[in-house]
Amino acid sequence: MSAEPENPAGHPGDAPSVTSPASPVRAEDEPVAPTPSRAARFRAWLGDNPSSQSPPFSKYRWLRLLTYLLTFYAALAILGAGADELSHSYGLTIGVALLCTLLQAGAIVLALWRPVPGWALSLAGATVTALLAREQMLSPMRRLPSPNWPWSTPVLLAHMAVLLLLALRVRARGTLAALGVTAVVTSVIEGVLGALRYSPTGYVSIALFAVAVLIGTALRSRSEARTELVQQTTITAEERARRTLLEERSRIARELHDVVAHHMSVISIQAQVAPHLVENPTEELKENLTGIRNNALEALTELRRVLGVLRSESPDEPEAGADTPRLSAPGTGPAPDAPQPNLARLDSLLENTRAAGVDVVKAEEGDARGYSPGVELSAYRIVQEALSNVLRHAPGARVRVDIAHFPNGIYLSISNSRPSRPVQPSPGSGHGLLGMRERAAMLGGNVEAKPTREGGFMVTAFLPRGGGDPEPFAADPHRPEQP
Description:
By secondary structure, this protein is an alpha/beta fold. It has helices at 38-45, 61-89, 94-113, 115-138, 153-169, 172-193, 202-273, 283-311, 346-355, 373-393, 432-442, and strands at residues 18-19, 148-149, 199-200, 359-365, 398-406, 409-416, 446-451, 457-464. The protein contains 11 helices and 8 strands. The strands form 2 sheets. The chain has a 6-stranded mixed beta sheet with strand order 1-7-8-6-5-4, with helices on one face. Strands 2-3 form a two-stranded parallel ribbon. α4 (115-138) packs parallel to α6. The two termini are 34 Å apart. Mean pLDDT is 76; it is low at 1-33, 318-338 and 469-483.
């Protein structure tokens, strides 16, 4: 497992996939997260099934391999040294000594993945070893030196390692419970059962176990604190970016409202009043003034929808396109005086892109008549932003632009091949796809952006002709074939 996830080929500056549903998903259609059972919660509480970054593991592969090597080496050392000491100090046979130390070595390895069963196995093995050694020390036929009992040195080190691994993965209450059980078992064996001719190690062992638990708990707390700090830092950065974006959208909405809406309202009122200022106005004049007023009112309706999307924190909400209260702060930017682009200007856009060195192919089907100005503008901007992403993030790629006109709307597909030259770092903020999604959502359409299997990238969009509920273009039998 690598330290960082790999990014799919395509547009690294943008999100790999953005989908904007046209209508809100019903609550009953949303997947419900399964509630974990008591057994699953208990296993998680015990530290089972850790992730690849749980202590003592690391997100780096070489550190995890180093952890495995050190653990297996410690288990082998306990197995060899422990069998020799148990055989000489306690008078056990080689087979029994190997079996006892094998339990301790296996407990260390098991504690890497299942710390609680590993601790139980280690404590059981140490208890069996102490009881077998006690029988040898109580035998009148044996004349053994005074060995360390009930914890020999290899068994003591093995149990300390197990308790350390346990403390790294289990909560403090569980670790203290394990330490308490170990202390009780040690006290019963040494204080209640007892033996002859031995050097007591019970109290020293309990103190060393407490040190191991303290070290493991401190390391675990430090790891949790660092994880929480990274999460808080990530959340803070996301909130800052989101706040900046909302402030910019609010500023744009304020300028649109204070400048454009004011002038359009004046035009509508003047067109309504003008026939009354002329004596015996002609029918042609009345029709022209009525058309001017209707166009102004239609422009105000579209503007209210734009302002609703800009002021909304979630552009996909159905209320985002509704009329919103008036902003009181004055605007500072001038109104644009250039004509808005439409579908008729797509060829000029493609020619400009070809002049920049990009191989662009266009395929168009159907009749391009009957769209509202908002639909044509949004379609133009979506194609423009997709081509801009190709220029920034896929140098040398071939581009195909497919446009299909259906009775219910327009379908767009902009796909590019794998870049033929190294991709240079781009200073873009990644808001291009967000702008596409907001434009489509304002009209009741949707946008999807995702990498292709060939290593390129594809942006698809569907915009309803009348700005109503969109049709699912993914299932449309007339959808044009992609390269």
